[in-house]
Amino acid sequence: xxxxxxxxxxxxxxxxxKTKKRREWRGVSDTxxxxxxxxxxWAVMAKFMAKPANLKGFFxxxxxxxxxxxxxxxxxxxxxxxxxxxxxxHQEFDFIVEHVCDTIGNLxxxxxxxxxxxxxxxxxxxxxxxxxxxxxxxxxxxxxxxxEIPIVYTPSTVAQDGVLxxxxxxxxxxLPSDVCPMPAAELGCAIDDDYPLVGVCAVxxxxxxxxxxxxxxxxxRRFGIPTFQLxxxxxxxxxxxxxxxxxxxxxxxxxxxxxxxxxxxxxxYFQCMETFNEETKLFREWLxxxxxxxPQVIGNNVALYRDAYYQVGGGRDARFLENDRKITELxxxxxxxxxxxxxxxRHRAVLWGVQAQYYTAFPIWLQNCWGILPLIDMLSLTxxxxxxxxxxxxxLYDMADLYMKMNMRxxxxxxxxxxxxDLWRFCEEFHADMVIMYEHIGCKAMAGYHGIFEEQARERxxxxxxxxxxxxxxxxxxxxxxxxxxxxxxxxxxxxxxLDPSLExxxxxxxx
Length: 512
Known about the structure:
By secondary structure, this protein is α/β, with parallel strands linked by helices. Helices cover 49% and strands 8% of the residues. The protein contains 18 helices and eight strands. The two termini are 27 Å apart.
């Protein structure tokens, strides 16, 4: 019992209060492996806490308490997995745990309230939450920190109520309650004085919505350091905007040089981009496997990890490439052994729209409960181009291309071609018969496409399931609400029964 997929009734693990009543039994080999990785994550966090500056930060900042739920977070994203898929997931998520610890450690090291390392602080350039890191590949002596990722993004992912306090603070300050929870939480954190004030300068971008632009402006005033607004074009598919995009990249490089005294190192940039290109080649191989009848790197095993190495790693951290190679080996091992991710593949799905940050484990529920294989998601389908490692002028266009096609704006902005047409193209390429359409209540970016999606899905004979969520605020639409929308469709439209009935309806409002 437990060795095979779907042999364990996973819904029983949610009985009780804040944490699971016991660990999942997966057979001797997989259970032992999972346990050793669980212990390893605790060891990484214990090592992090052993540093005095980090210990001070833990007791100074409210958002740090969410990180106590990290082991549960990894458990939720590995539920039901066996063999190569279990190992791929741990290879990815465990490294993310380590990488986030490094990022927070750098923040606390420079923070006047914690480590107060003033010399180190002079080497920090602060980027906003959706910024690509590739510009910093040319500054080997500087450190890039995406401030909001470990403070707002990750806490809302690790714990479903992780940033509700900051959303409430922003609304009490006067922000309308219908604003997207992401900039609201970031603004509330600034109002609450819960950001480490670090860095010699900052770079913000014109991200996906007016709310983000508003939040960036207020935060820039609060932090009080020189800030560059990187205004890359939103209609990024138009050829006429490429020249302007490259000029903005050149202006940003010049700004960082002026503020830090460093000179852009083209040799180091090209070296990092060679690493980034190798990572892209491996990602292409993962996509090719997902187009077959034996996909391996799917759902949770690609969604969050792709964000980490594509956006934050950006070729600068060679550990990601080493990790990617191990993942690729495991993927081919699973493919050659004809290992399936689920006990029964009923539907192959493309996940479109922006996912709920408080329920990033939703794809694993889809496959465990209903046999829906979440092949790929919209945020992971960013650029798969290989970029120049020799030509400086072309490199400026390449960086502009990356910044125009960032995770949160590549599809939700850019026009009909990337927002609608590309969805049907991916459905065809990945042989998908279903689309799980995330609908963020507070986002207006893709709201105008609603009727078009439904009409064109019918024309193509695709099942389209709308899943409503509140991005970072589960009070607007809970995890259970999201699951219920899928279950209603599966039962009423497709007349199907779940693979694991215990997962169809269970209470998880008290879980992390």
